[in-house]
Structure formats: structure tokens, C-alpha cells
Amino acid sequence: MNNDKEKCAASALGENGDRWGLTVEDLLAVENGHHFHRGWHIGWAWSTDAESEYVDILSEHRMPGMYAIRVFPDGSHEDLDTPGMYRVVGNTPDEDERLDREFLERNTRAYASLRDRGLLPAFGENIGSQDMNEYLRSGTGHRE
Predict the structure, then answer these.
(1) What is the DSSP letter of 90?
(2) What pTM was computed for the model?
(3) Are residues 43 and 60 in contact, defined by beta-carbon separation less than 8 angstroms?
(4) CA neighbours within 13 Å on the CB side: how many for 106?
(5) What SS3 class is residue 121?
(6) 27 in helix, strand or coil?
(7) Tell me: the pLDDT tens digits for 14-60?
(8) Cα→Cα distances 125→41, 71, 122, 134, Å
(9) Which of 32, 44, 39 lies closest to 61 in space, CA to CA?
């Protein structure tokens, strides 16, 4: 097994592996995976740059929210953009409308980027509360 890849997986899970119901072996077994456990959605995708392999991992839950990071074999990581949970309220109706539009547009881009990376399943294939959050935070998704 690739030792750098094992280090990435162990760093990506950190102390959360038990909470998420995931092991290093789970992350190593699937190049691009989604795992659902007790209200959590964990998505991961392996990739390679000029220097090494790395893993992008997303943690998503209705209550604590969402975060995503890129983890490298040395344990270092960089944050990936995720949708915002809250928005600023404007002082005037016009300002508030502009801020709302910017919030929804930014979140739409963030959801699309995470989906393009393989960290989010297609809309409607996530935990119901996560799909609802996506709809409320971006104004997009499946509508009937």
C-alpha cells in the first residue's frame, strides 16, 4: 500500500473516524466516495499534483454544518470553499436584496465546485436535510 496515501487518509480522518464510521481502509478502498452515517455525509476524492497524492474530504451535517479540506501526506491541509450558513442583513431593502442575491450566488458556486470535485452527490442523493440546506442556502436544486 502507498504509505503517503495512508498518511493522507489518517490525517483526513483525524479524530473523526469513529464519529463518521470510517476507517483509513475505507478511504483507501474507494477513489471517490460518499459515506452516510448518523446524519453525517462524508465525501472524499483522491487526486495527484506535481508533488504528491492528496485527498479532498468534506464533512457535512445538519447541525455543525460543512467543512472541506485538502490533505497532503505530511499532514498539512488547506481549506476548500464551502457554502456559507448565514448572511448579513442589509440596512435598507435594496441593500438586503443585493446581499441576499450575492449570498445565494456565492453558495451556488460553492456547491457546484464541491460537486465538480466529487465531494457531493447529485442533488436528491444526499441526506434529505442536506438537500434541504442546499436548496435554502443557494436557491437551486431540484424543484417540482
Answers:
(1) P
(2) 0.86
(3) yes
(4) 13
(5) coil
(6) helix
(7) 999 999 999 999 999 999 999 999 989 999 999 998 888 999 999 99
(8) 11, 25, 6, 12
(9) 39
